[in-house]
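stage 2 :: seqdesign
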């Protein structure tokens, strides 16, 4: 057995059992080496292997540069760092200097805790993170519910400026507080409920089922669902978590007077490849304003009772408003300095070597006026960068989530591209245009906000176990059955209003993603009906659905049989469908014959059809299976194209004419209603 595979275990054993071991004088006869060989490697009776392992252990302990010695030394360094003084005063001082708030510690924010550990110069590990979190919790008066609440600590009636004018220079005179930060990750972790549930499938065929329909299925029994475990965590998002207050929403979407086709500031030019080396804010570019209400929603009260700008909000609003003054640079927030009568917001352009900004904000006649100063009038953008943009964070991400719940990612991005300013695009500013991957990610976050678990299978198991949710009726491997009483009510109304009800059965593999790369292809099966609406319109509604990785007669017939039992359980007369239209899937047609019509196979159904048509037998309580003409036409057209396929250019025109003629004949045959129509 290799020493490398048990390196950590050996290092821990030496550190705990022989803390004062003299590494240079270790020999094969030492008790340390013997015990490691016997206890960890279990080679007490194997003299041959025992000798080779003891030699390897001795060499590893003696060599200063060996992996074992490095592992032991790292453990000792960690112990020294953990034993270093990390009292509460250091943590509190760090919180005050960095202007951390209660929002920064929501959901045990690892990034914030790691930053504090770096500031106070201790090892970043779980023990130190927990200690920092406990001290921060005491200092900021955090309640235990902070882990599941994402409430902003905001006081809309407070602000930090007086009407008296302040200094216009950028010195630190009269500076009452200082906040230096680069924009952190503003998207918090998902809220995790304090209640946990575990689901332990017994085998590959484990499933949960509300109606005991299939004797061959193995249910997930209630005793397999254990409380207080982290295997499956129902983390369903509470309603309103990402709700953006109306004043802030209105301020973000407020139309600003931006001149079209003009580069701002006026007379600015791109001086690339020259870089901006000036660090003084000598150029005045212009000003923009915030109303008192808009400004109050960008503030929060820190533990000292001081009003500060919320770093999850002000960068977004400043980027939105600064385009009335500067529409060339991709602006990011850097830091804020607070003075007695005003504050300075420092920002920079994302393009390398471009200019920086100082925005002086001061209360004037009930309005907050922001004056923009920059280090250069011109900008320095590399044309090869193909334009840059900002990260979508904070409440801007929440607003995008709301929009993407109702629209596709492609349409959302296309609208943003259409609305983008050509002037900004030519300057390399793609401020309002995000990549396809970013938009798809945001839409995925919006659609999965109400999921019970991030794992797809666990999510649907918990959904089936939810007594308030009766849509998922059966969860198992390889199939999930979905239908509800509300969908059954649609059928009741259709039967009441029109006697014959036609359903359309089909499957697609483009909607449901595979669980992993090695799993089988997952198909979404659905049976839909056409529901009439006023003014001669209609809508397609799903009635019964299935997600399955098995596409055979057994899986489909079990699904259809389960729905039949569900219908009979609610005291409806079977059959509820007069006709079912399907494609040329042999499995689907066979499953319909078995599950809904009670035949042993599709051939029995065809024999029944023959007796009804030829022998005039009465056909009742049977759902008629129809083949979709469009699917049949597609099969024939593909066959025609394959048959009339030439390799030479001279024959392509002739083959094209033949293909078109044959396709026209097929379409005429489909429109014919009798043999006489065909002959004529």
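stage 2 :: out
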């Amino acid at each position: 057995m290799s020493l490398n595979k048990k390196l950590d275990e050996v290092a821990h054993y030496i550190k705990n059992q022989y803390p004062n071991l003299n590494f240079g004088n270790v020999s094969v006869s030492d008790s340390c080496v013997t015990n490691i060989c016997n206890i960890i490697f279990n080679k007490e009776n194997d003299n041959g292997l025992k000798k080779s392992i003891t030699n390897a252990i001795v060499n590893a302990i003696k060599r200063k540069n060996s992996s074992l010695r490095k592992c032991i030394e790292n453990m000792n360094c960690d112990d020294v760092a953990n034993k270093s003084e990390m009292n509460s005063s250091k943590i509190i001082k760090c919180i005050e200097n960095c202007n951390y708030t209660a929002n920064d510690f929501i959901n045990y924010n690892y990034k914030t805790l790691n930053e504090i550990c770096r500031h106070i110069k201790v090892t970043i590990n779980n023990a130190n993170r927990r200690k920092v979190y406990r001290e921060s919790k005491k200092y900021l008066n955090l309640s235990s519910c902070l882990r599941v609440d994402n409430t902003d600590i905001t006081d809309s009636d407070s602000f930090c400026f007086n009407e008296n004018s302040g200094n216009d220079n950028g010195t630190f005179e009269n500076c009452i507080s200082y906040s230096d930060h680069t924009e952190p990750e503003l998207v918090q972790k998902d809220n995790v409920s304090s209640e946990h549930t575990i689901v332990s499938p017994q085998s590959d065929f484990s499933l949960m089922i509300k109606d005991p329909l299939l004797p061959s299925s193995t249910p997930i029994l209630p005793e397999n669902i254990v409380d207080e475990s982290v295997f499956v965590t129902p983390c369903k998002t509470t309603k309103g978590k990402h709700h953006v207050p109306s004043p802030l929403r209105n301020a973000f979407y407020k139309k600003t007077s931006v001149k079209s086709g003009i580069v701002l500031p006026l007379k600015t030019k791109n001086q690339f490849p020259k870089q901006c080396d000036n660090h003084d804010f000598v150029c005045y570019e212009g000003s923009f304003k915030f109303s008192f209400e808009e400004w109050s929603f960008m503030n929060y009260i820190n533990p000292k009772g001081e009003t500060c700008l919320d770093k999850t909000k002000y960068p977004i609003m400043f980027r939105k408003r600064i385009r009335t003054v500067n529409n060339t640079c991709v602006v990011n927030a850097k830091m804020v300095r607070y003075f007695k009568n005003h504050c300075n917001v420092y920002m920079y352009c994302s393009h390398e070597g471009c200019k920086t900004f100082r925005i002086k904000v001061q209360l004037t006649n009930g309005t907050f006026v922001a004056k923009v100063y920059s280090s250069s009038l011109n900008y320095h953008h590399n044309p090869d960068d193909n334009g840059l943009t900002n990260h979508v964070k904070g409440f801007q991400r929440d607003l995008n989530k709301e929009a993407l719940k109702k629209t596709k990612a492609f349409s959302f991005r296309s609208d943003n591209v259409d609305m983008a300013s050509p002037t900004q695009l030519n300057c390399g500013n793609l401020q309002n245009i995000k990549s396809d991957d970013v938009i798809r990610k945001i839409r995925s976050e919006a659609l999965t906000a109400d999921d019970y678990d991030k794992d797809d299978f666990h999510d649907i198991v918990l959904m089936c176990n939810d007594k308030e949710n009766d849509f998922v009726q059966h969860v198992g491997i390889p199939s999930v059955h979905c239908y509800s009483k509300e969908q059954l009510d649609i059928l009741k109304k259709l039967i009441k209003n029109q006697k014959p009800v036609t359903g359309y059965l089909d499957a697609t593999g483009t909607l449901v993603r595979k669980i992993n790369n090695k799993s089988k292809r997952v198909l979404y099966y659905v049976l839909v009906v056409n529901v009439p609406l006023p003014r001669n319109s209609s809508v397609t509604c799903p009635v019964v659905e299935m997600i399955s990785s098995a596409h055979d007669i057994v899986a489909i017939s079990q699904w259809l049989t389960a729905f039949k039992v569900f219908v009979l359980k609610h005291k409806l007369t079977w059959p509820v469908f007069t006709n079912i239209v399907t494609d040329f899937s042999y499995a689907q047609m066979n499953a319909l014959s078995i599950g809904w019509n009670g035949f042993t196979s599709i051939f029995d159904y065809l024999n029944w059809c023959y007796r009804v048509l030829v022998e005039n037998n009465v056909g009742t309580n049977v759902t008629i299976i129809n083949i979709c003409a469009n699917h049949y036409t597609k099969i024939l057209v593909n066959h025609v194209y394959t048959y009339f396929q030439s390799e030479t250019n001279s024959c392509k025109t002739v083959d094209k004419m033949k293909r078109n003629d044959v396709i026209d004949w097929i379409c005429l045959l489909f429109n014919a209603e009798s043999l006489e129509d065909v002959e004529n």
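stage 3 :: structure notes
- The CA atoms of residues 74 and 389 lie 42 Å apart.
- Residues 652-671 form the longest helix (20 residues).
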